[in-house]
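queue> holo job accepted (flavin-adenine dinucleotide)
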Amino acid sequence: MTFLTGWGRTAPTPAQVVRPRTTEELAKLLADRPRRGLIARGLGRSYGDAAQNAGGVVVDCADLDLGWSLDQESGTVTASAGTSLHDLMSALVPRGWFVPVTPGTRYVTVGGAVAADIHGKNHHVDSSFGAHVTSLTLATADGSIRVLTPGDRLFWATVGGMGLTGVILSATFTCVPVETSRFKVDVEQARNLDHVIELMAEGDHRYRYTVAWIDLLATGAHTGRAVLTRGNHALREDVRSAAPLAYAPRPLLTTPPWVPNGLLNRWTLRAFNEAWYHKSPRVRRGVIQSLTTFFHPLDGVRDWNRLYGSRGLLQYQFAVPDEGLETLRRIVARLSAHGVASFLTVLKRFGPGTPGHLSFPMPGWTLALDIPAGVPGLDRLLTLFDEWVAAAGGRLYLAKDSRMSAETLRATYPRLGEWREIRSSVDPDGVFRSDLARRLGL
Ligand SMILES: Cc1cc2nc3c(=O)[nH]c(=O)nc-3n(C[C@H](O)[C@H](O)[C@H](O)COP(=O)(O)OP(=O)(O)OC[C@H]3O[C@@H](n4cnc5c(N)ncnc54)[C@H](O)[C@@H]3O)c2cc1C
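queue> job finished
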């Protein structure tokens, strides 16, 4: 048995981790019907317990390599579910193609991207990963391998379905043509939350990618002050380089294996936030940034989650519709007043979502914050926010969650019943199980 956690490193549970190399090996595993069920795992970048299965089997998909292909004309890619976006980008970008959606880390797999229906800074323009998938192969509980397309109900129960409909073997999706591996970026400071909301609402349509970093430790008239970063793919003429499509990133630093608890606290983060806010330009336009600087600055430090010490961290990410903006303001005000030390708080806008029954994004706004686990009063505060988010018609993101209740899930995912119906038709005995599924009664 191996103890597994999510990226937050909270709530470890033991499981038998298996790495099938062929679909036959996977079929045998399924036929064995492990007593505590099984769940697929990618690179373990979901924050909570989605890719854990206490006392059961966890299927690590890394060795289940069915190869990959790119149609250079159309930008259509077929990749094994265990392929990381890092490996894909390393192959695709030099050929002039970019993944349709990337999250804040490139160390996620195609399977994890589909199962969580991940979103990026381009959701307001391009929706989430599932919107670009044209077909999936899925190994289901009865051992069969099904090819699914967006016309199938099971396709949309799988997109965002957190691995609970089966093991995704591969996905076919369309990529974005690019002339360079760089981005042309505008950066500007916003003096408070209302200012950043105004800037985003007024100008986001001019950018494919936008995100605002929020300083939660600023108070008074500066509550919610932000650094807004927005950009588009740089064109050939924007980049003075003999190799405009060059892309070969590597982590630069490694976190030491042992870090004292409490390193990231209100005081160290206040100092960091001050420096970060004031280091950013008031307004700067047309800055050329590399792909890693623009999308994945955290990937520069390997295992940065260890900086939170042995207690780990949790991420709270919620979405609210446009009419729920007041709830976003209330939550930011309450977090600032409470002095919650969050190293990374980001605000994004969401456009139309996909038909995924359990897909998280909805048109409106989303705020995500990392918080050291064990902050006094945190659980009560977040439970209060759960109620506010539910009352505003919003929801929490399953891939980030480690603490919401089954009641909150029921109240906030209106298509849960429909999803359950599809899931029980394809897996009547509940072979696919995870800690998240048990916690939320999925
Ligand atoms: C620093 C950081 C930044 C992030 N930023 C974002 C962001 O901007 N946007 C966003 O949407 N997410 C973001 N995430 C979350 C991340 O994108 C998702 O949790 C993603 O699902 C992780 O992929 P993974 O391969 O690590 O999957 P895991 O974490 O291992 O698993 C996640 C889920 O996918 C399922 N799964 C994995 N592989 C398969 C498979 N082959 N078949 C069936 N199910 C499978 C698992 O069962 C589990 O339910 C971020 C995470 C980190 C750590």
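queue> The longest helix spans residues 266-279.
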